[in-house]
Amino acid sequence: MKRMFIGILLLTLFLTVLVSCGKRENPVRTIYPFHEPWLLQPPEEGYIALQDNILRESPQKWVWVYLPPQYDRDRHAPLLGRGFPVLYLLHDFGGGNETFYNIYKVQQTADRLIDNQEIQPMIIVMPDGSNSLGGSFYTNSDLTGRYEDYIREIMDSIDVNFHTVAKRDPDTKKVIADRRYKAIGGHGMGGYGAFKMALNYDTTLFHSVSAMSPFLSFESFLTKEMIDSVFRENGISEDDSSLSSYKTINPWPDSLHPDKSITQLIFAMAAAFSPHDITKTNPTEPYFFELVNIEGARYGVDLPFDSARTISPGSQIWERWMTYHDIKTSFTRNPQGGFGELKIYFDCGDFDQLKLYEGAGAFDQLLSLFGIEHTYVEYPGYGDYPAGHSHFIYDRLVEILKFHSRHFPSPTWE
Amino acid sequence: MKSRCSVVLLFSLVFLLFLNGSVLGSGFSLPGVGSKALSMGGAFRGLADDWSACFWNPAGLANLPNSEFSFNLYTLNFRPEYTAKVHFGQGEYVYQVGYEDATFYPEDRALFLPSFSGFYKFTQIEGFSAGIAFFVPYRLESRWDLYDPPMGYNNDIPYPRFDHQTDIIIWDLHPTLSKDFMEGKLSLGAGLSIQRADFELRRVVLTPSIYPRPHEYFPVDWNLKTDGWGMGFNVGILYKASPRLQFGFSYRSPIDIDLEGTLDLQMYFPTLKPIVEGGTYKYHEGDFETTLPLPGDLGVGVAFKPTERLTLTFDLNSTNWSRLDQLETKDFFLRLEESGYYLNVEKSELPFEWDDITRFSLGGEYLFGENLRVRAGYFFETSPIPNSTFTMLIPDVGDKNCFNIGLSYRVNSFELGYNYEFVAHKKREITSMIDQNQDGLFDNLPGNYKMALHSSCFSLTYRF
Predict the structure, then answer these.
(1) Is the Cβ pair B151, A3 closer than 8 Å?
(2) Does A126 touch chain B (CB under 8 A)?
(3) C-beta atoms of A391 and B213 within 8 A
(4) H or E segment at B37?
(5) CB-based contact (8 Å) between A1 and chain B?
(6) Cα distances (Å, whole numbers) of residue A134 to A92, A153, A261, A371
(7) What is the pTM of this model?
């Protein structure tokens, strides 16, 4: 009896312990390794649109290209109905062709989303929209180069040299790129560029457009507060409205004024939207700010505000900005035809340092007013990490890729 | 008889092969020492009738009829489970910072914990008993693979696999002296604790960076390796109210262990070309000093014999873990700043902020025949660790219900003992990250914690 009792006791304990010792497995985390991008070499003479720019910057710019894992790297030609869709992703002011790849990890994010079948495989093209002023705003400018046309050149090159989706033109019978598999998006300045291209070309070039924290309304952006920042960055006191002080404004940081980030942004915009008329070789206008002097000829930009820190309602410079370059104004001129049948997505952090959420919110209301189908998201940050201009681009990219993938027709790759 | 002993021995050894992991009572302490005391749920202060009395109540040693030498082997199977929720934001805006929302387990590792004790009863001096024991009151070991740097560290900057680690062991060399009075009705005892500690912690410290997500925090591998010595004492009283009833009281002093060693801080940079070239940077590697404040303990116990063969015990004790409020590191970080490195740390202690705890214990022993004793025990104990500093590094998850069962068999001068213990912890849920000492670094890890513990203690005692 006693022996049986002890035996049962020990056996019970043994089984209990044995069961409790089962090995437990930790979750297996999939790592999406880093791959170098495909580098699209510029033409030998550089891109035509960037030649002859007054700032004399190189027209040779490399384009970074993300190729999905399914892409056959030995094959570089469009295929009738069987290629990959293409997303053109335009970087922000201060960035370059590498920004989405290296800073925001678009390659690993896309690999993950493709692997999880959350998006269809796509080619992502990242042009270089930078210049010595920090950014081109993807705008045709005599001063900096014709960056809008440069994007068109890249698109032509991608259409021909990559495994994109092509179709046969019913009229000419030639093989041409199928625009239903093309999309454009961008961040900040790139978002502006994407919307600008979309407005200018609508469905003749793209099927969908997206923008993260874009510049959509100059009125909302270039506020008194922003103009004050320019003066402050240049060491001009609040009560100083003299022309002489105003003329000292320049975008080049120095030891006394090391941070000129807003000034640089405004100068880059001015270089894109209001380069000084080059026929005036000896400009005397108070708004003119020289950037280069070539053999005695002074070239530069016209700023849209004056020494009193105001934008005159009748200012010709401001009119140029608004009439030819402001997204909201351009759309208002032709609300029904502006975007054609384009699918539209844009978003903005609710703590954007440039307060771009105000312009984005106003544009959202405008699109709704005209019954244009679109998606706008104003997203929050968390804790002590607010949703600033660049803080959540890594996360928003996921939404951008899903949005475009959703609107590309069914996958055609094999 | 011989075959019966063989069966017991065989089962015990099989147990040893399958058991692994780590263990804890409260905080990082073990539930107690000695197979018999553990079998009775640690309700041993009123009985204190074997060598482990030096730990529970040194007064009990005065009543031991013989000298003893005992070998104990603790085997531990530690089963914590952590479902991480270390992210920011809420609703549809949830952002990961390197901890995946998933359930994790520590690495399974075999852990055997031997202890030896000797107790020699002086016969030259009437009424005095003296002895020396060597045991392990604190032990915790675990290794977790919880954190993975986000994208951007690419494939070429490997972060240590086991990013959260604990390895704590404190040995106690314990000379004890006791004496009885009033013809054996009252006995007093006192012991000296000479403690040697090896104290190692490794964790991830997320320090704010100036770069956008997913690199708003850079991980720092915080790796502390120290050891040191400390000294304390314990005293006890045992009073026999009648042949069937006795009371015990014991007190263990707090101990400060002066730790010396190294603290290595290695920051891992992502590849953010052309701004940052990925890699690692060793902020500091070298000397570190701090003091580990260990708690004191105050307890009372009762032992009652309703029959000659049955013994029942009850204990109540309190442990002042509130002594462990922080590990001071001030000088270290000041020196670090002076040498030009700044780690976004305004204050510089590692906060614990633990609370005092209470345990009550019940135990029983029944004698079958002349040599076989079967025991059972239970104790309930709270956790000293608040949510604000809780991580899985010291997984004392919640209120504990501990069940013990054991037996021993005497063969001439030898006694073979065995105890099995199961501890069930109440689940703990932590919903928010907290910076307890406002130094810009989070001191807890949110998520759901579960914990169960299976352990056994095998003992062989020789009396002479």
Answers:
(1) no
(2) no
(3) yes
(4) helix B35-39
(5) no
(6) 9, 21, 10, 36
(7) 0.86
